[in-house]
Amino acid sequence: MKKAFNFQKRFLKKFLISFLISLILILSISSIFIKREFLNSYEISFKYFANIIGFEIKNLVIEKRYEEIDKFIKNIGNIYRITVINRYGYVIADSIVDIETMENHKDRPEIIEALNGRVGRAIRYSKTLKEDLFYIAVPFNIDDELFIVRISSRLKELNKIITNLIIEIGIISLICFLIGFIIFSFYSKKFEESLISIKQNLENISKGNYEKKILLRDRDFKDFSDSLDLINSKIEKLIKEVEFEKERINSILSLSGQIIFVVDSNKKITFANKKFVEFFNEENYQNRFFWEVIKDIRIINFIKETLSQNLEKKFEFEDSNKSYLLCSNLIEKTNETIYTIFEITSIKKIEKIKRDFVRDASHELKTPLTAIKGFIETIEDEVKNRRYIEIIKRNIDRTINIINDLLTLSKIEEKKELEIEEFDFKESLSSVLKMFEKKIKEKGLKVSVNLNNFDTKIIGDKFKIEQVLINLIDNAINYTDRGEIKINFYREENNVVFEVEDSGIGIPKEHLDRIFERFYTVDKSRSRKSGGTGLGLSIVKHIVLLHNGKIEVESEVGKGSKFRIIIPQNLTEN
User: Fold this and answer.
1) 199 CB-near residues (< 8 Å, 6+ apart)
2) Sequence-separated (6 or more) residues with CB below 8 Å from residue 360
């Protein structure tokens, strides 16, 4: 019963507050409207009365018999105060006050209106009677003789009438309130019983009990109870389906060969599979901070970084002679991050075998090829048909270039650490361009450099950035027969951007996705002719990715290509 009392008390209190606010608004608005209607009614009556008086005294005004006018006005002015005023504002008759003592009324607002030929109306304080009065001034023009009949009434009496009406309205409202209060109290008790039944049913739902039905006595709630019972059955069905899907997903994730766990925005682990428990040797992980469960400082720092910056990132680490790849992916709807750890030991071994093979094979091939080239150069002058020697020499040069590029690529892949330093991009670019001066001159190309007045001091691996410039400029020269090569440099937020643009043959759209693959060339005959290896852009891409940067390509066949390199400047300088 305490709950019932509290419920009724709260709602009855709100009912009372709502009534009081409504009553105050009704009385305030009623007071304004009643007063306005009364004044309008007074105005009509006063104008009618003023017209009668004007008709009665018109002859006396024409004949200027002012004493008789004053006497007549004093005889009829028992209920309202009546004043007659001439065109100059002087009082010629008044029903209450001696006219000799009265001031000129020309400045009174109602008189000003009447002198302009309109009926004047005003509510103001009377200096003569020392109280607020309501005035109506009616102008009369007889034989070019203008006079004004003004009738006024005390507002005190009008306010009493209005106050009495407001009190009556208030009493009637209170009676209506009491009747409504009794009816509301009766129905609120029945309403409360229905709500208690609904509340109990909702509590059963929250506890997972969907079988109990709602029994409501009130007919008004029958449709509602039927709808709620229907919702119960649907919720029960949906929850069973969700639980089944949850169990199914958990089983799949548990059997998965990867380590999977989820961290929410509060930095707590909300889910982990069986592999996680085995890897970190921690069964009690639910709703604990990730640093309480995970002890590896490398993984902790990676999670902190990705959570603080909402990053989707990859991180490789080693543990117990095994290699792992940790990936983070955002779940936007739940504001959580899912982390997956893949064991990549076998992949790393294959990569190492591949790198070792490329390096060893390159070294083994480079030595005899260098020797062959030396002997060919020695006998070049002695052989009569030098054309064959030149063909052999050109192919040996191309093979040596391929081997050099393979060795460079192998070193980049093997040594992933960057030698970060601050250096002047402008100086590095000048050094690289000097290497190609002869080649640019031979092809008659124009080179323009635009630094856009930016500070050219950048942070990165100087040697590797120069490798990027060498490969991009070499490509631009090889694939441009006429026109110019543009090199642009600028800063964009916390990045430096440099572009190498040419007016050459361009790259067809179908080849754009593959140009960074090893040994892939768009025009094989031109590549062989220019000594290209098909590894230059692959080297460029690897260097840019090592800097956590991006490379973008725009190209149109017959109009040229533009390579845009974006290097972040939040790298740590050694």
Assistant:
1) none
2) none
Q: What type of residue sits at position 442?
A: E
Helix (H) or strand (E) holding 238: helix 222-255
Spatial separation of the C-alpha atoms in residues 61 and 51, rounded to whole Å? 14
Architecture of domain 420-568: 2-Layer Sandwich (3.30)
For residues 502 and 448, give the distance between their C-alpha atoms in angstroms, rounded to a whole number. 10
**Fold equal for 256-343 and 348-414:** no
Element (H, E) at 541: helix 536-546
Sequence-ordered list of residues with C-beta below 8 angstroms from that of 192, at least 6 positions apart, any chain:
4, 7, 8
Amino acid occupying residue 189: K
How would CATH label the architecture of 348-414? Orthogonal Bundle (1.10)
CATH topology of domain 2-160: Beta-Lactamase (3.30.450)
Q: How far apart are CA 449 and CA 485, in angstroms?
A: 9
What is the Cβ-side half-sphere exposure of residue 82, based on CA atoms within 13 angstroms? Answer: 23
What is the rounded average pLDDT for all residues in the chain?
78
Strands 484-492 and 446-450: parallel
For CA atoms 249, 254, 259, 262, give the dihedral sign. positive
pLDDT digits (tens, 9 = 90+) for 513-549: 777 776 556 555 444 454 455 577 888 888 888 888 9
Among 2-11, 67-76, 420-429, 524-533, the minimum mean pLDDT is found in 524-533
Q: Does domain 256-343 have CATH number 3.30.1330.10?
A: no
Residues 383 and 381: their CA atoms lie apart, in Å, by: 6
Q: 3-state class of 239 per DSSP?
A: helix
